[in-house]
Amino acid sequence: MLGKLPACDDLKRPKFAYDRLIHDHCPRRAHFDAGRFSENFGSAGHREGYCLFKLGCKGPVTHAGCSTRHFNEMVDAWPIGIGAPCFGCTEKAVGFRIPLFERVDVHLATPPDTYAPISGSVGSFGAAAAGLVGIAAGALGGAAWASSRKLASSEETIAANEKPIAGGK
After folding, report:
1. How many CB atoms lie within 10 A of CB 54?
2. Based on the structure, what is the number of domains in the chain?
3. Residue 50 lies in a domain
């Protein structure tokens, strides 16, 4: 193949270097698919190698071979390898244009619907639900108090009706 230019993508980049999304071969990809994300740097999930998407990883929109081709043949000598999110430096519209810790839209790499959502709101607890829980807790507490009073009353009755045994100590 000497003397021939390599095949290029639509941005005139050589396909051998920009043929895949970093996300496709990321060592943290299984955590993305399972819905396990690092929430903070240094957290338990971060130390266990959870996906860095929520910390601003640009891997899902960055075409490069960083995840499979090692810099100077040094394994893990790239941002994700050292626990930092991908910066998207090979993408003209991403690197140095989107803030480092800002999330990107994921178009091609979404986990199945059966997994936990990447983002979303947590359910709210309304006033009606709080009222129902209060009523249930009150009824349970009242029933427990009434039962304890009835038990104490029956124990007093039994103690009053007991007669000493003749010749007993």
Report:
1. 17
2. 1
3. yes
Angstrom distance (rounded) from CA 23 to CA 80: 10
**What does the block give as tokens for 156?**
């007093």
CATH number at residue 44: 4.10.480.10
Within a domain: residue 36? yes
**158 found inside a domain:** no
Interval 110-134: pLDDT, tens = 555 555 555 555 556 677 777 888 8
Q: What is the pLDDT of residues 99-115, one digit of tens each?
A: 888 888 776 555 555 55
- Residue 75, domain member (yes or no): yes
Beta carbons within 8 Å of 120's beta carbon, 6+ residues apart: none
CA 143/CA 137 separation, integer angstroms: 10
Q: What share of the chain is helix, strand, coil (3-state, %, to 5)?
A: 40, 5, 60
Structural domain span for residue 43: 11-116
Distance (Å) of CA 132 to CA 122, 138, 141: 20, 10, 14
Quote the radius of gyration of the chain (alpha carbons, Å). 32
Least confident of 14-18, 91-95, 152-156: 152-156
Helix (H, G, I), strand (E, B) or coil at 141: helix
Beta bridge partners of 21: 63
